[in-house]
Amino acid sequence: MKVKVMCIGDIVGRPGRYILSQALKDPVRERSIDCVIANAENAAGGSGLTAQIFDKLLKYGIHLVTLGDHAYRKREIIPTLESASNIVRPANLSPGAAGRDYAIYQTAKGPRVAVVCLIGRIFMKPADCLYAKIDSLLGKLQNEADLVFVEVHAEASSEKVAMGYYLDGKVACVYGTHTHIVTADEHILPKGTAYITDIGMTGSHDSVLGRKTENVIRAFRTQMPYPFEVATDDLRISGIEVTFDTQTRRAERIERVQICESSQNLASYDSDDGRPEYYADF
Question: What range does the domain containing 133 cover?
């Protein structure tokens, strides 16, 4: 049986949510996508996630939601992380961190899709070992799911590439997030695992990683804090589509996906519930 999964890169603020609301359902239907996974750690005000926005993402057609280093930027998401079965924070955080190590979605065809998010340790905040964590989960995941997707939320490309080779033949797909810049190295690894270093972002691409360019440039030039406001032009959904054969247990195809939409109606979309904040990072 062939199963198609779409993975969507970091959703940035109101513009990212807007294009999902307008432009996701038709491609999912036309491509016969069985499961949609999306990273939503920047979906509220450009950093963090709220329960209200989480519910909206599910209505737009997303089945599984992942978070990264901004998982707890908005504390009101913590009760959702503890109660909802279709959202995960990075699995290799402290065992005491709120949230789940993995989430599973049962497709209409029957096969179950699991997602795990691992956070990188190079140029990132402290976290437990990625390798030890995924090793501890693989046995359980292989019993509970038919396809396992592993998101590596990391700054360093080397961490993502290394994890791809480590998990080759053990999972359906390893894909990267966090840098917001899509890479052109999608391929099937020797033992049948689909791989790409980063799937990009969903939101304004006339921007610096989803933020208005002027203040980002000022911050770099002056080393002073400025509000990195979410940009609103050239909206795109960025991600991948992976086709997996449940009989051979190998990925057959991985394709970059980019869906564009005019931003002319963004003003009529619901207001964001997060005001611009002062960040030294993204």
Answer: 2-265
